[in-house]
Every structure is written in structure tokens, then in C-alpha cells.
């Protein structure tokens, strides 16, 4: 049983860091469980990520402690899991952890039997008791004692936990009803933070899907409270410390209610969904702050996250040389030295003396705009270039890169920003190197594919292909291929599973419906199926979306705002999203259609032939050309040849049919 071979099989930078540890880590592999069985030892699983601050802390303190490492190496089989590389293992263990200890997050510390039964779980554990947290030394001894003397109790608890998890993932059918959105919106209004924006209290994650739902309903219903909640939250995030005011891009979440103090990791998938969100918000509201924020995300991509051959890197670390946020935070002396006579204006702009500075270092947020704002930001950004930047995980995950490609294409048409050609280059790379004609790899690393694609990978690539088709008239065939494979391989009686084949240790099927705060896998898959059905007329996709929604509708009512993404997908299923079909060679019409905003609007350029079942397009091709037709809720407009009229038609055609108020 070769531990190093098991580790290197992963190729994950987080897992490979285990080679430098005092703990003799394994990766998540069959051989590790065989070793545990052969030696009758419990298993310690450490789930984390290369970008995670507290994952570094537990490695550098707890697992670097001689006594801790000695106990683990003698009495446990330790396994490291990269939650980015193996989201299926992470999700299942997070569910167990919540049930066992009420805790979840990263690092996730899980103790298991060699058969995969969970004994106990926690998040960060210091070496010894500290600040109300039990020490790892105490926990290791307690787990070892329980494993040796209470195996019957462990097995009974594992059976009960498995039954509870399986019960949640069983189908939960209910009537498909668009009005469930109103219940979610009422819940959002009840939890809305009037003072600081967002919902609830600390910690605050950017509520991506909930904001998308507010934009959708504000567009069609015009209810001022929806606009108020969206504006307040979008502005607070854009001006807060949760957004990097100098380099662009959003951090994972804010630790406080004010959106001021984040954990400083930046994830590609978060920023992809936020780029789409801010581009749509700009197109809807016309607020220049939203365009500037979207442009900041693209600035971050330009500086750190683009692979020259196509594809976007996975994440950027929170730490530099063991210090969280070292790249982003400022002492008062550093600010004064950098800004000179501009410091008083900066102090007013950033509200430097209005908030506490954790560890004597300030995180920059825009409290008020001053005339010198641009100059202040430029000076600080230039000075920051001299600092060592945080580590970037250069893995190109297929789904996340497709999500960002889709977002950058949306931003190019709705806000006039972004690198459209790079986005298309990315899709070409994913199609060429991560897609074998029937299956997606999870991603690309070290010049080749790694892992098996999960549900969100397929769904995001299908959605990105449809968006790319809108711009180019190409890629629709690939979107149909990927979505077809997704339906064939992931859909069953419970909805869309997160993986095609559950891990042999953690066998319970998982049907993701809760947002994390990213769109859930089922929300993405159902949206991809319905949008492709409306575009192509392929009935298989409509039937798949219907089947998944019927299996999950009961969970939507129970989850409420936590499943806002699924509520959007349900709306798209029951209220046919608008399409604009541009027939013939008509660049000006196509540009006008692309620039026009309407929620879930799909643009379809059809220059000549049509190979899909959707019948109306053949009729359009037989009519006058060039021309555009706006189709919504089962009807299409008369042909439009004036680009100036087309944008208005996109916004208004059958708009009243979509209202809920």
C-alpha cells in the first residue's frame, strides 16, 4: 500500500501539501480504507482547500504538533480531501457533520470507521483545549476509546444518520406553482437588513440567487420593495470590504454584518456568478457602480486568473506566508506613507476611524465617495503591486471555467466589458481537453484531465455553450451533447444526482437543491434543460426538467430562500423565457438583441439552415430576411428589421404575462 502513490494520484495542491506534513496523510483512495481495515484503525478525514485560511492554520499548528502527529500516525489512518476536487465527498461529510455535531465548514474534521461510518465530526480543532474548543489531543483519545469499546453504538448511530440523510434525499413531490416565489420574497423581506443590506446577520455570504430572484421579479412586477432590497445589498457588497476595492473581485464572505471584514479567499465560481449578477443589475437599473464592480472582477481575472491557453484558474488563497489577508490589509503607517497629503481624504473615504482594525490592519471599504477617490485607489493599487500576492490554484475546473466564460460573455453584451474572445477560447479548451464526447472531466491540471465531472460541471458547460451560441451561431451542438449526457447520466427518480456514480464509501445519493450560496446543481441542470428545450424544441430536455422539478418541489417549499435558485428554475419551466430569433445575416440586429436585457433572455442567430425540432424557426427562415422575432410565452412577434425597435420589443413583448403581483 503506497501512501505517496495514493497522494500523487490526486495531484491536488491541497492534498500534495500533505507530503510535507508530520502527519502521514493519505488521499481519499481505496488503499487507505483497506489499510484501516487491515490494521483495525479509525480514519481521520481532513477536508479543506488550498484557498482556506483555517485549513492552513490547522496544518501549521495542530497537525504540526509532535504529540498530535505521533498519535495520528500510530493509531489512525489520516486522509486529506480537497473539497474543490471532490465536492461529492465534501457534501456528504458536511451533511453528516451537521447531524453529528451541528458544525460544518472548512477545515472539516471527520472521524470514521474503516467501513465509512461516521464516529464524530468538527471543524477547526486546536492542538489542545483553547477558547472553548476541545483540543485535538483530547478528541483523538476519546475517538480511539469509542472506536475500541463502543463499536455497536457507532454502528447504530451510523445507521440512524444514514436513514436521516437518505430520507431528506428521497423524492418530495408537490404541485409546480410559480407563486412559491412570493413566499420566498416574503421571507427575504422579513430578514432584510435595512441598515447594511443583505439578509440576516453575520456571517454574510453574497446572496447571489436571492438577488437574481429579486431582479427577476422586479423586472416583471415592478414592486419597489424588491428593487430596494436588491439595490441596498448590491451597493453594500460593492462598497464593502467583501469586495477588493483595489484589485477587483469578491472574497468568499463577510464575517460581520457590515460586509466589512471578510475571509480573504477569492473563488472563481463565486466571482463568475457575481459577474453575471452585476452585469444584469447594471442592464436593469443602469447604475454605474454595478458596471464598475463587474469591471473590477474582470480586472482581477486579467491580473491573476487567466490561463494563456484558455480556461480560468480555480481560486486565490486567503493567506500570504501564513498571514490571512496580508496582501489586502493596511496599517495606518503604510497608508500615510503611500498616500502622503491624500491620507486625510482617504481616512474620510474609507471611514478608517469609524471601525475597528483587527490586528491593527484595515480592510478597505468605501464609506463615502470623495473627489480624489480615483487617485487614492490608483496610488494604493500601485503600491500593493510590490507585495507578494496570494497563491493561485491553477487547476482549471470545467464547470467553474464554463461559468466564468458564460459570465464574461454576458458582461460583454450587457455592460460592454470583458474579453469575449478569451471566453470562447475557454469553451474551446474545455470541449477539446475535458470532454471526451460523452463525459466531462472534473477539470484540467498538469496538462491533462483530472477527476470525473459533477452535475454542476455539465450544467454550467451546457449553459455556457448556449450563451456562446447567442454570440456566434456556434456551440449549440455542444450544449445539446453535454446536456444530453447530463440527463442520461445524472437524472433519476429523485431529481438530478450530484455525481454519476456515488463514491463506494459514501453511497447515499445526493440531490443538491440548496444554494451554497452558488446555484444548486439541480437549479443549474433544470435551467439548462429548459432553456435548451425552448431553443431547440428537443422534448427530452423539457421532460427531464419536469421530472426533476416534480421530485424536488416539496423541498423547495421547506428550504425557502435557501433554494432561490430552484425557484428561478421553476419559474423558467412554467413561464417560457423570452427568445429573440435573428434570421439571415444581420449583425446590427444581432447586436441589438444581445444588448437588450430581459431575465433569462436567449438570443438565437440562425443564418440559414436549422437542424433541430423547434418548428417556428423553419417558418421564420422562409419569411423576410434579415429579420428578428421576439418570442415569449408561446407567441412570437411580427418580423422586426429595425435594430432600434428590437431592443424595446425584447423588453416589452408579452411582458405582462410573466407577472405575479
TrEMBL record:
Residues 6-165 form the Spermatogenesis-associated protein 20-like TRX domain. Transmembrane segments: none annotated. GO terms for biological process: carbohydrate metabolic process. CDD domains: SSP411. Pfam families: Thioredox_DsbH. This is Spermatogenesis-associated protein 20-like TRX domain-containing protein.
